[in-house]
Amino acid sequence: MYAIEFEADIRNGTVKLPEKYRLLDSAHVRVVLTVNDERLMGEPEVELDFSNTEIKAFSGRDALELQRTMRDKW
After folding, report:
1. Exposed, middle or buried: residue 68 (CB in 10 Å: 0-12, 13-18, 19+)?
2. What is the pLDDT of residues 11-67, one digit of tens each?
3. Strand partners, 15
């Protein structure tokens, strides 16, 4: 597989191939679109902050030692 790059306008859901690539008519291709359009951008990722979260699961226990014990059972 090889890549071909060209710019085109989408009209009614159709991309017109440049003449020099017409030999690909009826061929199966993989299409990757690179678009500079903010309307298609998803919601910005929210960074999760657990720094103020108190986790009691390993309270008073060595978490690494507990993991080693669990792995030894495998």
Report:
1. exposed
2. 999 988 899 998 988 899 998 888 887 777 777 778 888 888 887 777 788 888 888
3. 10
- pTM here is 0.45
| Contact status, residue 2 vs residue 27, Cβ threshold 8 Å | no
Instruction: Check: CB of residue 42 under 8 Å from CB of residue 35.
Output: no
| SS3 (DSSP) at 14 | strand
Cβ–Cβ under 8 Å, residues 15 and 8: yes
Q: CA nearest 28: which of 64, 58, 1?
A: 1
